[in-house]
Amino acid sequence: MFKFIIQFLFILLIFSSCGNPDPNINEQGKDELKAHEVKKVLNPKDQKYKDVIYVPIYSDIYADRTNQKILLAATLSIRNTSATDSLFLSKIDYYNTDGELVRSYAENIISLSPMGTINYVIEKDDDTGGPGANFIVELTSQNVNVKPLIQAVMVGYIGNKAFTFLTDGYSIGEENK
Hints:
Blueprint: H1 2-16, E1 37-38, E2 49-56, E3 60-61, E4 70-71, E5 73-79, E6 87-95, E7 101-104, E8 109-112, E9 117-122, E10 134-141, E11 149-158, E12 161-168, E13 170-171, E14 175-176
Antiparallel strand pairs: 1-8, 2-10, 2-13, 2-14, 3-4, 5-9, 5-11, 6-7, 6-8, 6-10, 11-12
């Protein structure tokens, strides 16, 4: 009987640890970005604010001669700081060090509700971006006074020491009407 209980607990432990390893899948089992997609077409005349944000990402960094390439996990965080107006994201593109497009994440318009946040993770083992990777995020809003906050948080470790740092997104194409 004791052997049966141990086997049952072992099997239970295995199945309970088999959750979804993808950090970009939310509790409902949907991709974080797809969960915010809207199918409607935005009227450009209604969008009073338009901006293009450049966000530097470091998917790996140099540390020293013995640890020349340390892989990092990176989280892109897009935050709507408006308490009243939605943000609409039309582009979230990931580029590598050479400026080549690696992936486009926005297939449809993504709506970010007032005070809402979307986080998207580039896994530590994904080194396709390289040390000079970046995101280009295009967004619009009906209110010219929105002030989105877009950052990236990188996390890595060497041995038993962990480190983290963040980068801010920079406007490279603001257009207010």
